[in-house]
Q: What sequence folds into this?
């Protein structure tokens, strides 16, 4: 199978702006082409749009606005991991030989309809994700004797890291006390434990090995892909304190890339809520079960940006369809030693973890120089 | 590259039923598994949903309802050719080795939000497709001196053929006079010249060569794929009397399958409106420019079901996200000599043409025994 590389990217600031979805999409795609003038629009075979927005035909619209006449064009939706689903689709188009170069653009507005999963009756009256996040938090705290303060460190660390990310929604730092004193949304969840929906867009361009080597000196290769959907309904999860789909997706991705979690130098983790970061770290084997908050605390106290260097979803904001692509861009920047004050020391292997709907589905990607 | 085959299908009647989208989706998938008990749900690696419905996370929902825990799951949207976009995605997942077996389910409700493209300002006050269809019809008639009566034969033929399709929305036959006397919607378009949105669902299961040969005696192979998006806005079309995206997509598909249009024994053509059938036939090289209605008339008068055997969109109805998949199922049935009274004489090579938004994008597939 031909190797597939990421050869360019564009990203917008994440904001609370009220902006038409077409224009949000265009912003990061235009920046991508501005940053990569060596890429000829005529060579782009496919344009995939990742979004939960209800507007239709967005990929042909983006194509027309950017001056591309692709073969393949459509939108991809899978709630919060739409972005990495699009990247995997782009990968398969290239690896199968149907395309040589694919533009993947994710975009969302702050008022995305993807925040609420109407279908999931197991959420009772509470359709909003804070419902499952509260149950995850309660369950995780009980099972591993973890305190609210220990979980608050996830938010403190990720806000601190987001401050070094010029595109992040947040540019404030907080203490554990600040998190503990922020508005209590449920018994187990405070406002600063939550990522916030926002307006933003992220684009990458992917290419076959031949095209990638022609067009850039430092392509980043996608060497591992893992995906798993265990259910759609939240209560079908086998556990509320581990992430089964994440565990299975990471096993597949690491196996494909012939790596294990110890080889990962930098990772983007889907911290939709504080509890998600330690749970995901444990489910992917970065640390033992119940030890995720210890790992987070250790990283925070040594000022090590290894996990969620751009500030995670909590610090950066969460424009659903753009998130997986923005996470991937961060790992590309890290592997290219181009991450400014967020730069991790000389990383060779990076990982992206992107999930949906109470971890009922997950994508894990392994990226290498 | 590994060959990719279609190994099973399920389809619902196309109706005007008011039914939840999740239940519409489930109907054809359930029928697929009922018809193909040799297929183990545990072996299904990916579930793709094709729809314009605004509900989110439909692929994990369908997966949970059918008892599948796939790796890959998401929705695909590209207005009226969402179905074939999903099929091409499934193809690439299998050909790239990321999946061995993929379920592709398309579904729509009669009130699909995909009928109107709000973004396209070039449609003026008339967002509904009858606007572009009227301009296509006027332009085609003027350029090739074609009469309304000649175009009406498309509707007469396709309604006649739909009568042999137990799943079709229409079960009536009409004369040229009936079409001419049906409600005049615009100067150039009558009610019976139009396909009608409806509720319906269609599912296929695709597999790698090895799996396909294991699981069925008569897989149908996808040997040619062509796709092209020329624009999103209707007035960017270079012509209103030929279909540029269809022409380019068919060239790619025929080249990939090492066939030419003379080799095609049976074809499903995207006749959203009467004028689309002759235009598409000409753009794909089935006949010369301006001669499409002669070909339609010849087929009709000899009772030859070669083009749109199931009754086309005009006779069968047009549940947007399901249409491309339903077209593909018809060709599979034809190639397996399993099309009942619609059966074309011993076909070896079939073609599917599925397009969106005034032919601003097209997919063409070539299928073989």
A:
């Amino acid at each position: 199978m031909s190797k597939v590389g990421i050869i360019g990217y564009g990203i917008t600031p994440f904001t609370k702006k009220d902006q038409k979805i077409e224009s949000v999409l265009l912003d990061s795609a235009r920046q991508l082409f501005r940053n990569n003038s060596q890429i000829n629009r005529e060579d782009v075979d496919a344009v995939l749009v990742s979004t939960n927005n209800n507007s239709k035909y967005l990929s042909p619209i983006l194509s027309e606005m950017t001056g591309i006449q692709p073969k393949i064009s459509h939108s991809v939706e899978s709630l919060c991991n739409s972005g990495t689903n699009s990247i995997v689709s782009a990968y398969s188009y290239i690896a199968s030989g149907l395309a040589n170069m694919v533009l993947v653009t994710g975009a969302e507005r702050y008022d995305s309809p993807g925040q609420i999963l109407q279908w999931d009756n197991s959420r009772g009256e509470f359709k909003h994700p804070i419902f499952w996040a509260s149950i995850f938090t309660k369950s995780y705290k009980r099972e591993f004797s973890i305190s609210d303060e220990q979980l608050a460190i996830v938010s403190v660390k990720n806000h601190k890291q987001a401050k070094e990310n010029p595109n992040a929604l947040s540019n404030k730092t907080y203490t554990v006390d600040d998190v503990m004193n922020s508005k209590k949304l449920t018994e187990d969840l405070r406002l600063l434990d939550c990522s916030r929906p926002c307006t933003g867009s992220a684009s990458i361009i992917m290419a076959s090995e031949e095209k990638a080597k022609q067009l850039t000196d430092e392509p980043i290769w996608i060497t591992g892909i893992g995906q798993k959907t265990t259910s759609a309904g939240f209560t079908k999860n086998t556990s509320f304190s581990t992430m089964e789909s994440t565990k299975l997706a990471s096993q597949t991705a690491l196996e494909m890339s012939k790596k294990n979690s110890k080889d990962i130098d930098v990772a983007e983790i889907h911290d939709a809520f504080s509890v998600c970061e330690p749970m995901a770290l444990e489910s992917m084997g970065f640390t033992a079960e119940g030890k995720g908050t210890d790992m987070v605390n250790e990283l925070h106290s040594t000022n090590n940006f290894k996990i969620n260097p751009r500030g995670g979803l909590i610090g950066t904001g969460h424009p659903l369809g753009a998130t997986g692509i923005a996470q991937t861009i961060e790992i590309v920047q890290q592997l290219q030693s181009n991450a400014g004050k967020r730069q991790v020391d000389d990383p060779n292997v990076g990982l992206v973890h992107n999930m949906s709907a109470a971890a009922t589905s997950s994508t894990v990607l392994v990226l290498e120089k």
